Amino acid sequence: MQQYTKFKGPPPERQSGGWMYWVLALAGLAVLGWIWWQSGRNAETSPATQLPTTNKLSRIISTATNRPPAAQRDTNMIVRPKLAPPAPTNLAAAASSSISPPLSLRTNSAPTARPNAPASPRDSPSVLSLFETQLALARLAISPGVLDGLNGAQTRAAVMAFQRAEKLPITGTLDDAARTRLGPSEATLLAYTITSSDLARLQAVSTTWLGKSQQTALDFESLLELVAEKGHAHPNFIRRLNPDVDWSKPAPGTVVQIPNVAYPRPHAKAAKIKIQLSAKTLQAFDADGNLLAHFPCSIAQRVEKRPVGELHVAVAAPNPNYTFDPEVFPESTEARELGRKLILPPGPNNPVGTAWIGLDRPGYGIHGTPSPEQVGRTESHGCFRLANWDAEYLLKLVSVGTPVIVEP
């Protein structure tokens, strides 16, 4: 009794049972710890257990930023900042590179020659993004001028016209809002096969007014000129898309790459044409004020030849001939010596191109040009000059009597 009182604890047999309980508890904890440690090692080495964790993290990040997971995001945007990759050997390679271009480069058919290599691989990223932006705008009949992959005033004016039409902030740069609204593109390049008919129509154009009047047509002088016009493109850009083509010795069956561009089918007639002299632009609007078309244009060199105010369409003629009047070209020695009018045959190299829209002021009109790459950069003798493809499209929008508002 004194021993029990001395230790003030349970009897010896109860104390022994408690010790065994704690040993078993510690052993159980050790076993559980070992199992937990082994499962941790398996998780680190098993891809199957890592994948759900990664996807869950991706969803968490995407939710926090209001963006879909990377695997679901659409990368076909117009212009996207990107780091320069190793120089691609051609445009098709650029499309599949690690910094895929903003719009997928897809052709409708595979060319027989090596396709679509730019003249300088170093230029590929900027050329691709700007070209695709220009192409997306052109497909809305909002022309950035000739397609050339270069960022100039006409491209910025086209972006502004698009932003204004879409009621977006007008910045002249393709910001996120405009980029999203403009959306992805179809195939950007088209494989065009040269035909014998294409080659048969080529002919040199005389350098004199009299010589031009004696030709059967004022058609394309070279295959490069013909192909560039089909693609609404600058001849130099066509060369860059087709570096292996010998343009001096074309042959039927040659396959070349051109921009896959086509204007939309007009859904309404123009209720008004507006020409802004300072901006050198022509725009067509429907009866509700919606933009139908936006084109760069050349204006008269002399200020007194720029009619400000309201004019009206008096005549609309596709593929017109041209009446050469020496009085309109006082600077021409030949014109002064001829002293008579001449009739020049139709064709893309006719002085008024492939379309004429005469206005109700004598001598004034809206027309095409033999040099579309010069539109907006040179000045005319008094008319409003467009690229042939723009003048042809405008011809579909106007009627006799359509108002033409000329603003300073």
Which helices and strands appear, and what pairs or packs with what?
Elements: H1 2-7, H2 12-45, H3 47-65, H4 91-95, H5 124-138, H6 153-165, H7 176-182, E1 189-193, H8 196-200, H9 209-213, H10 223-230, H11 235-241, E2 255-259, E3 272-276, E4 281-285, E5 291-296, E6 309-318, E7 322-324, H12 333-338, E8 342-344, E9 355-359, E10 365-367, E11 384-385, H13 388-397, E12 403-407
Structure description:
The longest helix has 34 residues, at 12-45. This protein starts with a helix and ends with a strand. It has helices spanning 2-7, 12-45, 47-65, 91-95, 124-138, 153-165, 176-182, 196-200, 209-213, 223-230, 235-241, 333-338, 388-397, and strands spanning 189-193, 255-259, 272-276, 281-285, 291-296, 309-318, 322-324, 342-344, 355-359, 365-367, 384-385, 403-407. 34% of the residues are buried. It has 3 domains: 2-65; 89-264, no CATH class; 272-407, L,D-transpeptidase catalytic domain-like (Beta Barrel). It is elongated, with a radius of gyration of 35 Å. Mean pLDDT is 77; it is low at 1-16 and 41-128. A hairpin with a 5-residue loop joins β9 and β10. By secondary structure, it is of the alpha+beta class. The strands form 3 sheets. An 8-stranded mixed sheet has the order 5-4-3-12-6-9-10-11, with helices on both faces. A two-stranded antiparallel sheet has the order 1-2.
